[in-house]
Structures
1.
Amino acid sequence: MRAYLVFELRRLIREPRMAIFTVVLPVLIYTISSGSSEEAGQVGGVDVAAYLMVSMAAYGALVGALSVGIAVSQERANGWLRQLRITPLAPTQVVAVKALLASLLAIPPVVSVGLVAAFAHGVSFSAGQWVALVLLMWLGSLPFAAFGLALGFTLPPQLTQPVSMLGVFGLAFLGGLFVPVAVMPHVLASIATWLPSNRFAELGWSVVAGQAPPVGGVAILAAWALIFGGLAAWAYRRSAALR
Amino acid sequence: MTEAVRLQAVAKDYGPVRAVDGIDLSIARGQTVALLGPNGAGKSTTINMLLGLLEPTAGTVRLFGGSPTEAVRAGKVGAMLQESGFAANATVRELVELARALYRDPLPTAQILATADLADLAGRRLDKLSGGQTQRVRFAFALAGNPELLVLDEPTAALDVESRQAFWAAMRRYAATGRTVLFATHYLEEADDFADRVIVIARGRVVADGSGADIKQLTGGRTVSFDRAGTDLDMLRRLPGVVEAEQRGERALLRCDDSDRTVRALLAEGHAWRNLEITGAGLEEAFLSLTASAGKE
């Protein structure tokens, strides 16, 4: 299984598209949006620059975590996953590696947007906060990794890409990553608090505010992890079923 | 345990369509066996059931005395599927190394690359290969783990004549190490040239099983040809021993399963003919007559 993980990691690093969508794009949006709102003061008890940093890191993490589902869908269609099934590698190990990869892809956007925030926008935290931020955002990305796998094991490649993109944008927008929940209309704001994307970013917002994440938020995120995890397991079993 | 593969009354339905209709076969270790049949005969379905990728509707499949999945997990099986793709963004060498890492007792990398004629392409990215090169990579991936049973589904489908010969030479070297090889093909000459044993499948059933020579003998297949000088083709088709009759220019070609009777009748009935020729059938004729008789049932 380690050999397969190394093989997959090496492939991932070579994929330039991945770097553009999970690193360059979030950093770019962050730079533009925080540059224009420097005087806005605070959002939810956090400096705007820090608040936006978490939002954009969370957005990049969503893109990264869901992208593995697109790869799964392609590899399912071209027969590579089938080829792997006639090796000693157990199919569940393949799924585990894919889930791990998806969650790992949540880290580069957090780190890169964080670096830009620290060096270009005067955002400063303790070392402990940085570690907590990366760790929580990594673990918190699991529901999205599972969501991506559920799509990848269900849809053909032509559909997986657009549906994933729609999912990312929908979750990011409705979850308050582009527009803070505080300025959303009442109905949208109450929807937002039930979404995994909002509760995912909340992990980061709590860390930069120097607080522990609220238990209710973590519970909602965990519930989504179970739902998407169950869906992914179901989708996987269905796709691998012997007919 | 001297048996590598055992299929007992294996059948497979796709909805109302019966793709495999009760196949029994046993393959001893060390044999090189060809599964020969036209497209749609049920070769790929049989192979997929044999590898545990498909569940038979009825019957049992055993590899080395266990289930296909057990044999695959134990690293006893390597397979080359039809048109299977590879992960993008990896090189030939990385893929071969991955395959080696997955099996307990793999072949040395250099030997794998040399056997599959890939030494010059080791650093090449998988998405930058031609069809023939990709096919050789599939072969390399299948044999990397040094499996006891190597299964190849239409292995030379994308190859030109030259790489086809190179491929079979490599396959022969592998089989010579005492491994069991099962390959599906619809190239008759391949089955005849490279297999110890040929199993002919038509319409989901085994219609013949033996050496290439056995199969030719079984049908007694010969071709009787002559300038037909106006004799009606339908009349010729009704002669005893004729399986099929066709016309090529002025010549009538009769595929026969008993050419002696055909020729006797041809003389006795006084049909007009000139330049009579009787030729022994290749496996192709044998194959056609077997397939045709399976269809008559």
2.
Amino acid sequence: MVVEPSLLSVKDLCFERDDIQVIDSVCLDVSDGEILQVEGPNGSGKTTLLRLLTSALTATHGDIYYQGRHLSECRFEYLSNLLFLGHQSAVKMTLTAEENLSWMVGRPIDCEELLAALDSVQLTGYSDMPCYRLSAGQQRRVALARLLLSPPKIWFLDEPFTALDRQGVALVEQCMQKHVDGGGSVVLSTHQPIAMDAVRRYSLVNQLSTGAN
Amino acid sequence: MISNMGFLAFLRRDLRLINRRRGEVASPLIFFLMAATFVPLGITPDAELLKNIAPGIIWVMALLATLLSADSLFASDYQDGSLEQMLISPQLLVMPVLGKVTAHWLTTGLPLTLVSPLLGLLLSLPTAGYLPMMAGLAVGTGCLSLLAALGAALTVSLQKGSLLLTLIVMPLYMPIIIFGSATAQYSIEGLAWSGPLAILGAMLAVAIALCPLAIVSVLRLTTIN
């Protein structure tokens, strides 16, 4: 029997910053249709891990495999298939919600589809308002509207629930559900419990406080 | 994933962003004009003396004005996370960076070139000097923008990096200011001014080829933390 290689596979990933081991020997697998929740106390390296996985940072040691191939062989393909939503949501304050969204989606897209996406994140009527006029939660929603329009296979969401109200949280969960139902995968970091079935947890520990040096 | 990573896409986006905060574009221009106005007031209004120093003064002011606006080149992209999105895009970053620098030049170097005749008038620049000065500024400010962008990339992760940026970039500006003011000076003295202009052009060509590559590597380095 041939074992299908998992979508994303991480072997012995380490990251060191200023002689401090921020990420120590992380091994994990993400398969199609799976949600991986990275959890851990503040400072345990959740954001660092996500940035390593999106190749925004380069690991000091360890390997990342995408569909069974080493990342160095399929970098273009991997990066074309991932979406990363970080703490900073890349929303430009001086652009309107609609302009921001159409830029972030990054493919030619018609106006109606954009407006429909903004409608679903409850930003009806805000589409041509500059984003500095929106509240923190609404700005976050502009960035989240991307999830409704994005074809990438694997999503990396860093604290996606920050500044969102309960309705917003439910909306993100819906998006993730739809995404995994369609065969996509999600890696997210959050402290909140997620009310979904397909979630698997991965716990990081704070390297400094455990005295692991 | 941002896949609209072309030169034109970034040029258009940055021009739109700059258009939304026009005041920031106007400030270096007004600085350029005002600072040069002080020269006849502070030194001498004597036309004979002024015409000798006019090219040099105009170039020094242009250089300072470009530096004033340089630190905003990557700062907002860094703060709001756009830069991170750029860095994890599958495409090469060279073209987007070139697009951003071009937008910077179109909104600083080009307007400076266009208002420079006004300064020429203030500083009693002889008529023969106008065209060479403008040609020199148009080419030279291109180099200035590219080098300023390199400095901006180096200091992007610092809170108050603008002074450091100035210190890093200024030594690199030396050849540009030498040949830039020589272009105008030669024409005033009745010499052929195509020589220094050609050297400026050559410097611009080298800068266009190498600076974006350097900027991209520097951005990757400075954002690792």
